[in-house]
From TrEMBL:
Native species: Pontibacillus salipaludis
Domain of life: Bacteria
Protein name: Phosphodiesterase
Pfam families membership: HD_5
Span of domain HD-GYP: 113-309
PROSITE patterns xref list: HD_GYP
Amino acid sequence: MRLLSTFSLKPGHELAKPIHNEKGKVLIHSGVSLTLKMIERLNDMGITYVYIEDEVTDDIVTEFPITDQVRNQAIHRITDTFDKVKSSNTLQDSFIFDRTGEKMKEVVRKILSDIQRHDRAISLLSDVFTYDDYIFTHSLNVTIYTLALGTELGLHPKKLEELGFGAILHDVGKVQVPREVLFKPGSLSDDEFELIKEHSEAGFNMLRSVPSVPLVAAHCAFQHHERLDGSGYPRGLCDKDIHYYAKILAIADVFDAVTSNRVYRRAMLPHEGLEILYAGAGTKFDLHMIQAFRRSVAVYPNGLSVRLSDGRKGIVSRQNSNISDRPHVRILEENGQSVHSYYELDLSKALNIVITECDTTLAGKT
């Protein structure tokens, strides 16, 4: 299968992976031959990339890092908790969290267990979902990335559970932000941005007095927009004053934000998201953590069309453990000509060759 931009889809392309809504219901099945109307609908739904069937890549597979069952449980728990907070009369209705705290912790444990059994770099492009509310899926995605990074950093299991709990609730304060501001397609005014920024402190105030919520989880909500150089919010904290968990969470939060489709822009590919993080290494984000994150995520997802530094073109076919920026590439073109018989190149061994370009518009071409 090949990864393709929805803007580049043509009638007759056949879906290799189904499209789901956030509750797991299949909206378009795999194997369906797309029509122009379906393609327009995919773009309207905010789907940025899909996998399509292709003869030379039909054995290339992708896997979501957690099971469908765990994913659906997590989305249900996040949605239920956030909805209860939004409909409550006061911000201090801690009973909401007391009732759901243990269930949320159990979901975090299941996510962590799935991630640790998943012995490959994390790619959330592996399955395609369309969402009614970005906050819920962002909370899940950030939790997955955060736990993958925490695992790579060698955190103790109990600390990983605390970290995951903080990650899954880090944006709970956004339920107090007006939807017309939160999902505004254009630029925010200064006043609107100030409203957005209030979600960090609102989340902290919701969580800190709840017995079933670890205090460090409240600080994850409070500090995930702080930056090492003091340029973040809400308190402008600098490196030594920012909680270790919040530094991890900041990386996962930004990466998912830029690699997810939003109302005001389309998603970046993972390698582009990492460039954003590296641009802030040492000033905004911890360099050691970024390097660990790079090992944790699939920089170049399976099915992605790439050009190599020696001019050859191909498709990423599989990942190398702990060297996610040097995958296996199935070579389909060399010297400007299609190869008669494709072959695999392991970039972890061909150290003099690097990926120089990615393309999601080349389906069916070699």
